[in-house]
Each structure stands twice: as structure tokens, then as C-alpha cells.
Amino acid sequence: MGEKNLGENIGSDKKPIKRYYLWGVERWYPNRGLNEEQQQRLIDKKNRLDALRPFPSAALNRLRQDMAVEWTYNSNSIEGNTLSLRETRVVLQDGLTIGGKTLREHFEAINHNKAIAWLEERVVPGYAVSEADILVLHKMVMSSIDDEFGGRFRTGRVQITGANFIPPNPLKVPDLLTELLSWVCHNPQNLDPVSLSAVFHHRFVWVHPFFDGNGRTGRLAMNMILISLGYPPIIILRTDRNKYYRALNEANQGQFEKLMLLFFQGAERSLELYLSALGKGYDDYLPLNLVANDPAVPYGQEYLSLLARRGELEAFKEGRVWYSNTKAVKRYMNR
After folding, report:
1. Mind giving me the DSSP string for 3-18?
2. Residue 32 has pLDDT above 80, yes or no
3. Is it the case that residue 8 has pLDDT exceeding 60?
4. Which long-range contacts (CB under 8 A, 24 or more apart) does 310-318 make?
5. Is residue 138 annotated as part of the catalytic site, yes or no?
6. Mean per-residue pLDDT for 53-71?
7. Tens of pLDDT along 221-266?
8. Number of Cβ atoms within 10 Å of the Cβ of 93
């Protein structure tokens, strides 16, 4: 289907998008990302964050350390690592080992944390993620776990338990990844940063470039894109693991709504975390059961939870608990 090096010009200052297998994002993905309200909520929070620049170095370094631990814990836990958040922190910040945990689990935590440090040092505004970056990330993720295949594309077919697709022929992997990265660079549909990273992540998982470590590498790479566009990294929470996998499976069928919502909620949560640590953030946010007790709020906890899950109410999630405040409820009521 199609010929290698078939391309199309997108703008005079960029090379044409390379189309090797005509995966046709224009055909299977609606020409839109987040809705206008969601985009505006993120833009407003990002503008508040940008107004605080330059960030105090001590506060920023502490925030990055805390985010790296949480990011590492959640990303590894999604893949089956049994280290708790506290144990992950002990391994990374105290350099200790945890009794009863495998050596691989320790390496997964250490490797992922090193990969975060590497990308944070490397990525600057406007940075274009390359195939070489993907290979470096994977090599770091798999260090001392599978050095033979770390940083190398898979050479055989694979099947994914619980997924509703079969990854493409390994011979197509390098070209498909090149095409995907070219599409991200051009962004011909002018998607917002969060939607762009969501589509990239879905397609990366579909290509499944490696025998192992695709999820961790894909989540690191998608955050390289976000950071290059001025957004903090998105953390997919362990408690949202099943929701995350269902959203990816639905995206395989061209239904991206749940994946977009998950990424939107992750982006909003990260922006609030940064605002809280570096300025004025969500210090006044409360669990929804307390918000519902406010006489000014006409809704019960269950309805507020439904609005939060739909992304209609400004809220963020910690563990299994949603947080919001009365002001956010009033904004929803006055829409």
C-alpha cells in the first residue's frame, strides 16, 4: 500500500511528511482534539504558570524530584511493578533496596528515574523528538534488564495480552516510527499540545517498536513532546490503569474521546501541581464530599464525581479521590 518516500508538502519551511505505509491519521482521527472549553481551561492555567517564570530554582528542583518519583512509580506500576510509592522513593532518594522485591523491579525504578533526568536536561522549547531519542530512552529503560534488546527495534512479531490489535510486521517498525515523528513535527491538523501527545502515544503503542518496555518508553516520549511545547509532564495514574487500557483499545477503533479525556485530566492535574508548588495553586481544593456539603453547592457528591470524570468540572484526582472547590462548581453552573 503506497510507496516508500511518498510525501506531501506541509509549509515551505519544513520537509515533507514521509509516508511509508499511509497510515492515514486524517482518515481515522477526527480533525479536532480537546473541545474549546477544555483547551481554554488548560490555556488559562498555563498562562498563570508562565506568569510565574522564572521559577525559583530550589522550588523547581524539589518539584521535579517529587514529580519524578510519582511519575516513575505510576508508570512502572501500570506495567506490573509492585514497589509502592514510598518504596519507590526510598530506592530513588535513599539508594536502599526493598526486601521481598525483585532486582528487576529495583532496576525499573532506577532506570526510569534516570530517563526522566536525561529528557528534562535535553528538551528545550521547540525541541523535535527524534528516533535517536526514542532508542536512547528505551536503552535506559531496559538497562541491566535486557541489554541485548535495549535501544533496538524488535525483530519478531509480538502479541499483546488484552489488546484488540496485532502490532505491525517488525520490518515496518522503523518506517512507521519515522512517519509518526514526522507527523508530530508538522502537526498538519494543528492539534493542541495535549491532543497531539495523546495521538502520538496511541500510535506509538500501536506500532509497538520493541519487544518490551513500550509503555514506559511511550509515556516518556509523549512527555518529551509536551515539555517541548511548554507543558509539564502528564502522569497516567496507577489507579486509572484499566481506564487507560480501555481508552487505548477504543482508540484502535477510531474512538478517541476517552483517551483525550484521560490526557486532559492528567494535564490539568499537572498544571495544578506546578501552580501549587511554584505559586498559588489548588490549596483550597477539597474532597468532593466536603465540596458537596457547602450550602452554596446544589449538587451531591455523586453528581460532582460524574462531572469530574467527564472533565466538565475543574477537578483533579489523587489516588481514587476527586478534589475540587466551590468556585469551580460555580464556574460550571455559570457556563
Report:
1. -TTEEE--STTSPPEE
2. no
3. no
4. 310/261, 311/38, 311/261, 311/264, 311/265, 314/41, 314/268, 315/285, 315/288, 316/265, 316/268, 316/269, 316/272, 316/282, 316/285, 317/237, 317/239, 317/240, 317/265, 317/269
5. no
6. 93
7. 999 999 999 999 999 999 999 999 999 999 988 889 999 999 999 9
8. 13
Q: Tell me: pLDDT of 21 over 60.
A: no
Res. 22: pLDDT tops 50: no
Residue 155 CB burial class (10 angstroms; 0-12, 13-18, ≥19): exposed
Tell me: pLDDT of 102 over 60. yes
- Would you tell me how many other CB atoms lie within 10 Å of the CB of residue 245? 16
Distances (CA, A) of 131 to 153, 181, 190, 315: 11, 8, 22, 36
Distance, in Å, from the CA atom of 153 to the CA atom of 54, rounded to the nearest integer, reads: 39
- Which listed CATH number (1.10.3290.10, 3.50.30.80, 2.60.120.10, 3.30.70.3040) goes with 6-282? 1.10.3290.10
Rounded-to-integer distance, Cα 218 and Cα 214, Å: 6
Domain boundaries, the chain: 6-282, 284-335
Catalytic residue, chosen from 106, 138, 201, 208, is 208
Give dist(CA 189, CA 197) in Å, integer. 13
Write down the pTM of the prediction: 0.84
